[in-house]
Specification:
The chain has eleven helices and twelve strands. 38% of the residues lie in helices and 14% in strands. It binds pyridoxal-5'-phosphate.
């Protein structure tokens, strides 16, 4: 089979060959359990996990003690939101159920967790973004109440690449003594983020979005944050997340973090040039085509393009030389229009006619040029 060119890096990334090399010994001779304290097998695994923890902490300017390893961003988000809300419920009798503020364009991992908590009595406010996908600090400030316990706003949107003003959001949360969680899954490895120099209290991320393996992630938890564990067991990860560590996965994610730190700036420059070339090539040659979301506050690798008047399903089918997507991989089993584009005010038709192109480490200029030609040819046929 002739594989299509991959333009879906926001759904997942291939494991970098150097990441795979780093992981292999931990499936082989170094198979030990990182919690085994009585022999060299365990010691070897623990040492490697400590190094990976340091690598991840270095990338995000965090303290290694703030890193909690999980099975991915979905678990990290569940732990952050449920853990904070549950812990807040223990603060004395007659306390109102905790209030959480989030945004209607968040990933389903956040929205569905909030929905679950609302079933348990939590009060949830969903901020509505402007048509460019952005919320403002003022909007957030106006929504804070006396029982607000957590603000959860993503750093970068997976569908549009739009970057929320997380620095300002953190400052508002800090001012009102409310915890701030950010789903930074799409930002990791694409832009600099400093946990130390931010007002972020909890940060979720996932290995497979930055050239690490699938099924491993982390939650950064600022020292002193009260968080109820969601999994009981051997009190691994300082009691925050019980369960034997996924040693090879963690080693791989650590290596991926180190590669990101080394290459992020040059890589982002190269990718933004290719993304802009792709976007300009499509927009210059087709009518009724526009970019969804802020172009100014956006990840370097993502463009979400609306082909007005074109049947989106047919478009995806005919774009068979490209691996692209509409909406997020997690919701693409459903046939609803993208909740992100709908929240930004797009009609169902325009949301259905939109396609996300996301580029990455292994995207080439030749692939971009071929993609432009292919899109122009296919859309030209459909109009
Ligand atoms: C991929 C993604 C997730 C879920 O990550 P998993 O590790 O696959 O659970 C959450 N949030 C965003 C923004 C994502 O892109």
């Amino acid at each position: 089979m002739n594989y299509p060119a991959y333009f879906d890096y926001n759904a997942t990334t291939p494991v970098d060959p150097l990441v795979l090399d780093a992981m292999l010994p931990y499936f082989g001779p170094h198979f030990g359990n990182a919690a085994s304290r009585t022999h060299v097998f365990g010691a070897k695994a623990e040492e490697a996990v400590d190094e990976a923890r340091q690598q991840l902490a270095d990338l995000l300017e965090a303290n290694p003690k703030e890193v909690v390893f999980t099975s991915g961003a979905t678990e990290s988000i569940n732990l952050a939101l449920k853990g904070v809300w549950e812990a807040s419920q223990y603060r004395g009798p007659n306390r109102q159920p905790g209030h959480i503020i989030t945004v209607s364009t968040e990933h389903k991992a956040v929205l569905d967790t909030c929905e679950h908590l609302s079933q348990l009595g939590a009060e949830i406010t969903y901020l509505q973004p402007a048509s460019d996908g952005l919320i403002t600090a003022n909007q957030l400030e106006a929504a804070i109440k006396s029982n607000t316990v957590l603000v959860s706003v993503m750093a970068a949107n997976n569908e549009t690449g739009v970057l929320q003003p997380i620095q300002e959001i953190g400052e508002i949360a800090y001012k009102y003594n409310v915890l701030f969680h950010t789903d930074a899954t799409q930002a990791i490895g694409k832009m600099s983020l400093s946990f130390a120099n931010s007002a972020i209290d909890l940060l979720s991320l996932s290995g497979h979005k930055f050239y690490g393996p699938k099924g491993v992630g982390a939650l950064l938890v600022r020292n002193g944050v009260r968080l109820s564990a969601q999994q009981d067991g051997g009190r691994h990860e300082r009691g925050r997340r019980s369960g034997t560590l996924n040693v090879p996965g963690i080693i791989g994610m650590g290596e991926a973090a180190q590669l990101a730190q080394r290459h992020m700036l040059t890589e982002a420059k190269r990718i933004v040039t290719l993304r802009d070339q792709l976007e300009a090539g499509i927009l210059a040659n087709l009518a009724n085509v526009s970019v969804n979301g802020s172009k100014q506050h956006r990840l370097p690798n993502t463009t979400n393009i609306c082909f007005a008047g074109v049947d989106g399903e047919l478009l995806l089918l005919l774009l068979n030389e490209l691996a692209v997507s509409n909406g997020s991989a997690c919701t693409s089993a459903s046939t609803d229009p993208s909740h992100v584009l709908s929240a930004m005010g797009l009609s169902d038709d325009l949301a259905y006619s939109s396609v996300r192109f996301s580029l990455g480490r292994f995207t080439t200029e030749a692939e971009v040029e071929a993609a432009i030609r292919h899109v122009i040819a296919v859309v030209g046929k459909l109009c």
